[in-house]
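queue> holo job accepted (adenosine-5'-triphosphate)
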Amino acid sequence: LDLKNEDLKHLSDLGSGNSGTVSKVLHEKSATTMAKKVVFIDAKPTVRKQILRELQILHECNSKYIVSFYGAYLSEPHICMCMEFMDKTSLDNIYKKWGPVPVDVLGKVIVVVVHGLTYLYDVHRIIHRDVKPSNILVNGQGQIKICDFGVSGELINSIADTFVGTSTYMSPERIQGDQYSVKSDVWSLGISVIELALGRFPFANPAEDSDDEIPEELRGTLSPTKPDGLSQAASRPKRADVGARAGVSLEGSGAQMSILDLLQHIVNEPPPHLPEDSKFPKAMHECIDLCLIKDPSARPSPTDLTVHPYVKESEEKKVDLKAWVDTLV
Ligand code: ATP
Ligand code: MG
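queue> job finished
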């Protein structure tokens, strides 16, 4: 497909993130509805052309677990990427509107992410780098797919890592600037699953007087505030050093936690767990606990997880995802 702006009719806005904005468009010549992502990049034309070349690998990423790619083009000074439109949007939108994602659906989400990451790495040596609920999409047929993985090194370099207004799914090793691998994506999967199961970002600071049903045993792991001397630590960098605006807004909870507190918490404290609720099977707890092992050398890779009992069981289980998406109207 030879894509250009003139042939794409804007239908609606789908949302925006750190890197750009996404809209629903109609490619009139092929009568195809697409999602068009416009990325603003402050880079030289040569760099932009390089990014465009690197993005061509996306044409070869064909898997039922991955959102398909129609093409990319330059629309100076932007880069436009057109991909499969997923009409039920992303899991963050879904849980924010409809509440926690049902456990059987979560099993399928884990299967999709584990197999999608395995495909990307085994076949293309691609590390996703941005696994999170907003990059897991759902359509009306009940399909779940991942998107927004880092195919282009130049694109990754050009989009500065900005923490402003975002939660973080970064693994401890990535936060510390150590080498990170495909196992960092596994950490992000663990955090994402807990978020979808709880219906809130797992590191949210429970509001003092909230009626939130946070089980007592979870409060310790959820609370980022002042665990044993962390906050008084003399070595703590001044907030100004990392940018005064680095605040994390935790939608819905009204809680605020600075990005620095959050990063320190992830590095220094025990990882979060799925809630101790009988609706989450034991094997699922074990699987998520493995994803959230802080030491990357002890954490499984996506390939390791493909043979985990919970992943295998969830793969085989018949779950009517179509019936589930039909409830999201
Ligand atoms: P970040 O920029 O940090 O990756 P993000 O994933 O929230 O954050 P975008 O990737 O720009 O930001 O996406 C914005 C929104 O657009 C998403 O939350 C999602 O709901 C929607 N979206 C993205 N891609 C598609 C798609 N292919 N089909 C339908 N909706 C999409
Ligand atoms: Mg995204």
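queue> Residues 206-254 have pLDDT under 50 and may be disordered.
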